[in-house]
């Protein structure tokens, strides 16, 4: 086994080390591995050194059989292993891994649009100079391709790269695309229950939570959808991403809908930003149409099909697939029941659905006409030709970013670059208004960028 | 207070009643996803059943000459629905010990209904030393401690588990599980009625094996209580 490759930049529980007991002891004796306690107790607080949790209610007490004491353990990172007061974290201090310097790693033969290549150059420059860079690109701008030149450069330099994204669907979608683009590079896809954990990836595609096992590992950290749940709400994930980077490293943030905090840093010139308002196929973003439906929530609960949805279904292009977003899991079966006679094949999916992976894949292969979903499919996933409906768009889960992202699911394919986006609500909210405005202003910017002479005249 | 399952803040509605019973440590949204077992139930194993009689699985146990008289009856609090499967997974296999506290209010409500006015000794189902080290705690013991704290029934560690059974129960088929040798050894014999305590009654094999040992050692009646059926 190649110890340095397996262990460089990792921080692991004993159970997570891929060795037998005496091997571990040997590595400890030779100072190639060091141990640190996984929970630090100070007078005022507890800190989990594995996930950075400091919230007292996320620590539990366990009467531990191993050490015969009742002590704390971390409940925040328990889904990926149990850090207790009596367990240690193991870090590699032996020789660092040598990653190959590939001369020609990229096999991707497509070409970037002018807007894409401008952003791609900015990314590459940030990687060269170990800097931070924000790329603000609309949904469907082709963010993945923009990364290729930068990643190519990093691989030529023998750097280690991580692309962190909030959702496992996205990791699963990106994995085959990256493997085709970089056929000789060791790529790992990390998400809960992933079957592709080799432990030796130079390029790592990961959900943010999986970064819990890395420390000072990466020269390049690319954070996709930086504004998304859970990254947006959970500050401990920021520190995980931070810890996973080497001290000298570059960070690339990708998003279509940056939050206020990030925008402020851009306007204060603390953070370099590159703007891509045009989709890769050059067509404008579909602008959502909002429709008022009286007593929408009541109608859904009483199992009545909302009229606006009914007339939309009659008028729409039946060639396209349809995505319906609902605010909560409980509404999925209700809506399915309402529409079961209108579609030949339909399915529902939500975050804790055991067949989530299979259902999303089946929808992509056009096995269903309709997929009813919660906000888990709001971003990252690409279906070539869909119409989108948000049912109860006034619900608080649909904030501006969510609506912009959901609307961005439509019209992704160059063959069918338009798509209808319908927001059904029982009262216009600020979020709906802001989202529509956001999309319109993007389209305006795109228009101006394509015809720069025109602006000057006006 | 935060919900044990989803970590959201819980807002309590305090009433005279709520002051007398232990506070629920899970939020309303999580608690409606759990399914407490309601009558009618199988009179023997305590699972929900179409009429108050005996289910087929129990008829099979009663036909087996080895086990027919081992267990008097089992009572359980929850069904094993998908939500409960997630909870048990996190609790036992991930080792999130604190989750045991979510059973507290349900135990204080149901235990006196199942076993009124008695201080019958509790015998938690033991783990092998190996599994105990790996998990760090015994889930059956944790439940028994909750009952003891509330109703003062003594806990007796009357059984131990043999080391040799290497595979987890969940990795065996139903027939394999029933035919497997009795993994329990008697440590202390009790000539009083006994309540066996475990987290879950799936096929009932574990509990019948344990009941058989205790019955052989002279207990006049062996009952059992599980959180899940």
TrEMBL record, chain B:
- Domain (Phosphoribosyltransferase): give its ranges: 142-221
Q: Provide an example Pfam family for this protein.
A: Pribosyltran
Query: Which InterPro entries does the entry mention?
Result: ComF/GntX_DNA_util-trans, DZR_2, PRTase-like, PRTase_dom
Superkingdom of this protein's organism: Bacteria
The Double zinc ribbon domain sits at 3-59
Question: Which family is annotated?
Answer: Belongs to the ComF/GntX family.
What protein name applies here?
A: Competence protein ComFC
- State the organism named in the record: Gracilibacillus halotolerans
């Amino acid at each position: 086994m190649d110890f340095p490759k397996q262990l460089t930049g990792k921080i692991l529980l004993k159970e997570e080390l891929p060795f037998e007991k005496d091997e571990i002891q040997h590595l400890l004796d030779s100072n190639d591995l060091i141990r640190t306690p996984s929970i630090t107790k100070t007078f005022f607080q507890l800190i989990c050194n594995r996930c950075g949790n400091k919230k007292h209610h996320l620590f539990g007490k366990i009467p531990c059989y191993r050490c015969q004491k009742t002590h704390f353990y971390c409940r925040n990172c328990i889904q990926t292993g149990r850090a207790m007061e009596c367990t240690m974290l193991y870090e590699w201090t032996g020789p660092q891994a040598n990653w190959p310097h590939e001369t020609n790693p990229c096999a991707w033969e497509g070409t970037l649009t002018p807007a894409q290549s401008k952003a791609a150059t900015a990314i590459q420059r940030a990687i060269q100079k170990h800097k931070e860079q924000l790329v603000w690109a609309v949904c469907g701008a082709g963010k993945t391709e923009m990364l290729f030149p930068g990643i190519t450069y990093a691989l030529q330099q023998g750097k280690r790269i991580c692309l962190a994204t909030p959702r496992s669907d996205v990791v699963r979608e990106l994995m085959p695309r990256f493997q085709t683009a970089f056929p000789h590079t060791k790529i790992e896809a990390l998400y809960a229950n992933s079957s592709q954990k080799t432990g030796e990836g130079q390029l790592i595609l990961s959900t943010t939570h999986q970064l819990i096992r890395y420390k000072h590992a990466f020269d390049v950290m690319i954070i996709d959808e930086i504004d998304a749940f859970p990254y947006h709400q959970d500050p401990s994930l920021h520190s995980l991403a931070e810890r996973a980077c080497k001290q000298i490293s570059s960070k690339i943030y990708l998003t279509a809908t940056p939050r206020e905090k990030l925008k402020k840093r851009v306007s204060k010139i603390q953070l370099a930003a590159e703007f891509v308002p045009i989709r890769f196929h050059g067509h404008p973003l579909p602008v959502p149409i909002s429709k008022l439906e009286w007593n929408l929530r009541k109608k859904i609960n009483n199992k009545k099909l909302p009229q606006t949805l009914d007339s939309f279904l009659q008028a729409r292009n039946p060639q396209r697939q349809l995505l319906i977003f609902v605010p909560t899991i409980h509404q999925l079966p209700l809506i399915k029941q309402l529409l079961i006679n209108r579609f030949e094949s339909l399915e529902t999916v939500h975050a804790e659905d055991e067949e989530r992976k299979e259902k999303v894949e089946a929808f992509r292969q056009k096995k269903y006409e309709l997929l009813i979903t919660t906000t888990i499919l709001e971003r990252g996933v690409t279906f070539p030709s869909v119409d989108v409906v948000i049912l109860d768009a006034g619900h608080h889960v649909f904030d501006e970013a969510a609506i912009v992202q959901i609307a961005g699911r439509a019209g992704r394919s160059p063959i069918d670059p338009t798509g209808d986006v319908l927001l059904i609500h029982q009262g216009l909210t600020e979020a709906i208004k802001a989202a529509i405005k956001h999309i319109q202003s993007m389209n305006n910017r795109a228009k101006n960028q394509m015809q720069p002479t025109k602006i000057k005249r006006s | 207070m935060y919900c044990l399952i989803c970590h959201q803040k819980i807002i309590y509605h305090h009433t005279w009643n709520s002051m007398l019973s232990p506070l629920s440590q899970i939020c309303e949204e999580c608690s409606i996803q759990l399914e407490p077992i309601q009558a009618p139930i199988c009179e023997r194993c305590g699972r929900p059943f179409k009429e108050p009689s005996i289910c087929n699985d129990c008829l099979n146990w009663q036909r087996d000459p080895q086990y027919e008289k081992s267990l008097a009856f089992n009572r359980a609090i929850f069904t094993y629905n998908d939500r409960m499967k997630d909870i048990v997974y996190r609790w036992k296999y991930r080792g999130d010990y604190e989750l045991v506290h979510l059973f507290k209010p349900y135990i204080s409500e149901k235990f006196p209904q199942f076993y009124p006015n008695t201080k019958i000794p509790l015998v938690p189902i033991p783990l092998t030393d190996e599994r105990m080290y790996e998990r760090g705690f015994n889930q059956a013991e944790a439940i028994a401690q909750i009952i003891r704290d509330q109703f003062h029934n003594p806990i007796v560690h009357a059984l131990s588990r043999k080391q040799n059974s290497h595979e987890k129960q969940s990795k065996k088929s139903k027939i394999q599980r029933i035919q497997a040798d009795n993994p329990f050894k008697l440590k202390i014999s009790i000539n009083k009625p006994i309540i066996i305590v475990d987290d879950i009654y799936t096929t009932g094999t574990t509990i019948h094996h344990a009941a058989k040992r205790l019955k052989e050692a002279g207990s006049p009646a062996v009952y059992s209580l599980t959180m899940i059926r």
